[in-house]
Specification:
The chain is α+β, with helices and mostly antiparallel strands. It has 19 helices and 27 strands. The protein is 31% helix and 22% strand. Strand 23 and strand 24 form a beta hairpin. InterPro entries: Ald_Oxase/Xan_DH_a/b, AldOxase/xan_DH_MoCoBD1, AldOxase/xan_DH_MoCoBD2, AldOxase/xan_DH_Mopterin-bd_sf, N-heterocyclic_Hydroxylase, OxRdtase_Mopterin-bd_su_IorB, TAT_signal. This is Xanthine dehydrogenase family protein molybdopterin-binding subunit.
Length: 735
C-alpha cells in the first residue's frame, strides 16, 4: 500500500469517532471480520478489541466480573502489550458467542479460577497484534522501517524520537495492514503494568453506585415477579388459589411455571405481598424426602457395599497395611453448604415474539441461552444475554435456573419481567456444595508412613450441570434432544464430556512421599441438587487430607510442620510455601496463653498455598486471631488483587468452618437467612498476612485456593489447644 502524507492527513481529518479497527487476533477468536464500517461506525462484537478514531479503546471481556478481579486483571494484559495504561481501556462484557468460550470447558463460563490462566497468552497476543499493526501503519506513512518505530502511551513514535501519531489517527490505515511476522510479546524486563498495576478499574463505579448489577436493571413497562417453589426438591404444583391472589391490588397475573407458581405485579413489593396470600398444595410423590442423618446413613451403606472406583493407585496399600506396626483409621463428614451470595438470584427477561433479551448476573451466558430456549418457542440463536456485574458468584450462577424462571414468566405474560429471589428463597432453593464422607486409613511402620488410603463418598456435580451444558455444546440441536444430550453426557463422561473430577480433585494430587497410595471414589447421590461452590472438591478433600496428616503427625509424635516438610523433599513449590507460611507465622515461637497454631498445605487450581491459623476459645466461642498465608500462583498480574482474593478465600473458608451447614428434615432445608446460616462478621475478622512468591511461571488461579487449607488449619489449631480432634464440620467450641 502506498499512501502519501497528504492522503494520510485527509484520512485523519475526514474520519470521526465511529470508525474502528476490528482485527483478526492471533490466538484469540477465529473467523473475526477485518476492517471497519465507515458508514455506520458499528462493530460486530466478535473480537477482543475496538479502537476508534477518537482514541477510545474498548476491550471485550469474555469472563464475568464477580469480585475476583477479571475486569482489571485481563484488561491489564491487553494494556501491557498495547502500550497504554489500563485506565485508558474500557472493558465491556462479552455477549454469548462461541468466540468467547473458556478453552478448558468449551463453554462460555467463568469458573474454576481459570480466567487469568486461560487468557495469559491470548490477550497479550491480542494487544501485541494491535500494537504491531498500528506501528506498521505509522511506519508506512513515514516511509521508515517499523522496527525503528516505537509505541508508548497510545501513540507511535518516529525514529527521530520527536514526531508521533496517536493511535486514533492510524485506525483506518492499520485495518488495512497485515501482520508480517509472528507477534513478539514483551519480555518481563519491559513490563510496565503486569506485576505492578495496583487498584481496580471497577472500584469507582462500585463505590459510586454506577456499576450495574442484575438486580439494578430497569426496563420500560417492566413488571416484577416472585416465585413460590416446592419446599422439597421435585415437588409439583397440585393446586393454588389463583383467583384470590389475582384480585389483589397491583397483581397482573398468577401463573404456574415449571418450578412453581409465579406472582406478577406492578412492583416487587406488591408481588411479594401477594405471595404471602398464595396457598399452594404440593404433590410430593416424586420429591426428595431425606433428612441429613439419612443422607449420611446412605453414604455409609454405599461405602460398606462398594469401596469405589480407583482414582489413583501406587504400590500396594493392602500389602503395606498387612505389614504395618500400626494402622490409623478415621472418618470425616462435611455438610451441604449454600453459596449465600450478597446479591440474591435475579434476572430480567423480555420475550419479544421473534427474540428474547435477558439481563442477568450469570457466570455462563451461553447456558443462559439454552435456559431461555427450553421454556419458550425460540432457538438459542434468538436469545441475547446481557451480562451485568455479579454480586458474588462462587459457582452458584453457573446454573441458570433463575434465568429460566424469568424467561418463562415473560413468555407467558408477554411483558418484560424481573424475577427476584428473597434471601430465604436463595438459601432454601440453592444448589448446594455436596455433603461428603471420607474414610481414611494410613499404615505406619518403623516410624514412617508406608501407606495412604482415602475413600471419598458422595455425588458428582456433572449429572446436575449437564442438563443445559450439553445442549450448549450443540446449539443447533432441536429442543426435543436437550434432555437426551444431557443423558448422553452423563453416560459417556470422560468421552462425550470431560471427566467429572469434582469429588476427587485435590485428593488425587496428594503430594506427600508415601510409597503405597490408594485413592477411591464411591459414587452415591441422594438426589438433592448440587453444584460448584468456591473451591469445589478441594474444599472437602482439603479438610480430610490435611486433618488426617495432622492426626498422623501427632500419632507419630512429630511436629506437624516438620512432619509435612520431611515428606515434601521432591516438591519444591509445596515446600517453599510451607516454609514461608511457617516463618511468617513464627511457628516455633510461643503463642499467648489460651491460643494455639495449626498448619495446612494444599494445591488447588494450579496454585500452591500454605496457611497457619492462630486460634483460641473466648466466651465459649472459637476465635481466630491470625492467619498467615504463603501463596505461589505463578506470575502475578496485580499484587493487590492476589492479596484480596487470598484474604477473601480465608474469610469464606472460615465462615464454612465455623458456621456453614445446610440441614434437612424430610427433604426440606431448615435454614433460611443469615440468622441461621450466618456469615463471618467484621468484628470476627482475624489479622491476615499474605506472602506472595515471586515466580516466573505462568499465572494460575487465586479466586479459590485460599479456601481449602484454612479449614483444616483451624481444626488443627483447635486440636493443639484442646486435645480434642474434630472430624465433622462445622467446628465447635464445646466438643
Amino acid at each position: 500500500m502506498t499512501l502519501s502524507r497528504r492522503d494520510f492527513l485527509k484520512v485523519g481529518v475526514g474520519t470521526s469517532g465511529g470508525l474502528m479497527l476490528s482485527m483478526n487476533l492471533v490466538g484469540c477468536a477465529a473467523g473475526v471480520k477485518k476492517g471497519y464500517e465507515p458508514e455506520t461506525g458499528e462493530w460486530t462484537p466478535d473480537a477482543w478489541l475496538e479502537l476508534t478514531t477518537d482514541d477510545q479503546i474498548f476491550f471485550t471481556l469474555a469472563r464475568v466480573e464477580m469480585g475476583q478481579g477479571t475486569y482489571t486483571g485481563l484488561t491489564t494484559l491487553v494494556a501491557e502489550e498495547l502500550e497504554v495504561a489500563p485506565e485508558a481501556i474500557t472493558p465491556r462484557f462479552a455477549p454469548a458467542a462461541p468466540e468467547y468460550r473458556n478453552p478448558l470447558y468449551k463453554l462460555q463460563l467463568t469458573g474454576g479460577s481459570t480466567s487469568l490462566a486461560t487468557s495469559w497468552e491470548p490477550l497479550r497476543t491480542a494487544g501485541a497484534s494491535a500494537r504491531t499493526l498500528l506501528v506498521q501503519a505509522a511506519a508506512r506513512v513515514w516511509e521508515v522501517d517499523p522496527a525503528e518505530c516505537t509505541a508508548r502511551d497510545g501513540v507511535v513514535v518516529h525514529p527521530n524520537g520527536s514526531d508521533s501519531i496517536r493511535y486514533g489517527r492510524l485506525v483506518e490505515l492499520a485495518s488495512k495492514e497485515e501482520l508480517r511476522d509472528d507477534v513478539a510479546l514483551k519480555p518481563r524486563s519491559e513490563w510496565k503494568y503486569i506485576g505492578r498495576q495496583r487498584g481496580r478499574l471497577d472500584a469507582r463505579a462500585k463505590a459510586t453506585g454506577t456499576a450495574e448489577y442484575g438486580i439494578d436493571v430497569e426496563l420500560p413497562d417492566m413488571v416484577y415477579s416472585v416465585v413460590t417453589r416446592s419446599p422439597r426438591y421435585g415437588g409439583r404444583v397440585a393446586s393454588f388459589n389463583r383467583s384470590d391472589v389475582q384480585a389483589m391490588p397491583g397483581v397482573i397475573d398468577v401463573i404456574e411455571i415449571e418450578r412453581g407458581v409465579a406472582v406478577v405485579a406492578e412492583s416487587y413489593w406488591k408481588a411479594r405481598k401477594a405471595q404471602n396470600e398464595l396457598t399452594v398444595e404440593w404433590d410430593f410423590s416424586d420429591a426428595f424426602s431425606m433428612s441429613t442423618d439419612q443422607v449420611f446413613d446412605s453414604y455409609r451403606k454405599a461405602a460398606d457395599d462398594d469401596d469405589g472406583g480407583s482414582e489413583r493407585s501406587e504400590g500396594d496399600f493392602e500389602e503395606a497395611a498387612d505389614a504395618a506396626s500400626r494402622m490409623v483409621e478415621v472418618e470425616y463428614e462435611q455438610p451441604y453448604l449454600a453459596h449465600a451470595t450478597l446479591e440474591p438470584m435475579n434476572a430480567t427477561a423480555w420475550y419479544q415474539g421473534d427474540k428474547a433479551e435477558v439481563w442477568a448476573p450469570t457466570q455462563a451466558p451461553d447456558l443462559g441461552q439454552i435456559a431461555v430456549a427450553r421454556v419458550t418457542d425460540l432457538s438459542p440463536d434468538d436469545v441475547v444475554i446481557h451480562t451485568t456485574f455479579l454480586g458474588g458468584g462462587f459457582g452458584r450462577r453457573l446454573t441458570q435456573d433463575f434465568i429460566e424462571e424469568a424467561a418463562e414468566v415473560s413468555y407467558k405474560t408477554g411483558r418484560p419481567v424481573k424475577v427476584i429471589w428473597s434471601r430465604e428463597e436463595d438459601t432454601r432453593h440453592d444448589l448446594y456444595r455436596p455433603a461428603m464422607l471420607h474414610r481414611m486409613k494410613a499404615s505406619i511402620s518403623e516410624g514412617a508412613v508406608t501407606g495412604w488410603h482415602h475413600q471419598i463418598v458422595g455425588p458428582e456435580i456433572l449429572a446436575w450441570y449437564v442438563r443445559n451444558a450439553a445442549p450448549a455444546q450443540f446449539p443447533w440441536a432441536p429442543k426435543f434432544m436437550y434432555d437426551t444430550l444431557g443423558s448422553v453426557g452423563v453416560l459417556f463422561e470422560g468421552l462425550a464430556t470431560p471427566k467429572d473430577v469434582s469429588a476427587i480433585e485435590g485428593a488425587v494430587e496428594y503430594p506427600y512421599a508415601v510409597d503405597n497410595i490408594d485413592i477411591r471414589h464411591t459414587l452415591t447421590d441422594p438426589g438433592l441438587p448440587v453444584t460448584w461452590w468456591r473451591s469445589v472438591g478441594y474444599s472437602h478433600n482439603g479438610f480430610a487430607v490435611e486433618t488426617f496428616m495432622d492426626e498422623l503427625a501427632h500419632e507419630m509424635g512429630k511436629d506437624p510442620y516438620q512432619f509435612r516438610r520431611d515428606l515434601l523433599a521432591d516438591e519444591p513449590r509445596h515446600l517453599e510455601v510451607l516454609d514461608r507460611a511457617a516463618q511468617l507465622a513464627g511457628w516455633n515461637s510461643p503463642v499467648p496463653e489460651g491460643r494455639a497454631r495449626g498448619i495446612a498445605l494444599f494445591k488447588s487450581f494450579g496454585t500452591y498455598i500454605a496457611q497457619v491459623v492462630e486460634a483460641g476459645i473466648e466466651n465459649g466461642a472459637i476465635r481466630v486471631y491470625r492467619v498467615s498465608a504463603a501463596v505461589d500462583c505463578g506470575q502475578v498480574v496485580n499484587p493487590d488483587i492476589v492479596k484480596d482474593q487470598i484474604e477473601s478465600g480465608v474469610l469464606f473458608g472460615l465462615t464454612a468452618a465455623l458456621y456453614g451447614e445446610i440441614t434437612l428434615q424430610q427433604g426440606e432445608v431448615q435454614q433460611s437467612n443469615f440468622h441461621d446460616y450466618p456469615l463471618m462478621r467484621q468484628y470476627e475478622r482475624p489479622e491476615i498476612q499474605v506472602d506472595i512468591v515471586d515466580s516466573e511461571e505462568n499465572p494460575t488461579g487465586v479466586g479459590e485456593p485460599g479456601v481449602p487449607p484454612v479449614i483444616p488449619a483451624l481444626g488443627n489449631a483447635l486440636f493443639a489447644l484442646t486435645g480434642q480432634r474434630q472430624r465433622r464440620l462445622p467446628l465447635k467450641a464445646d466438643v
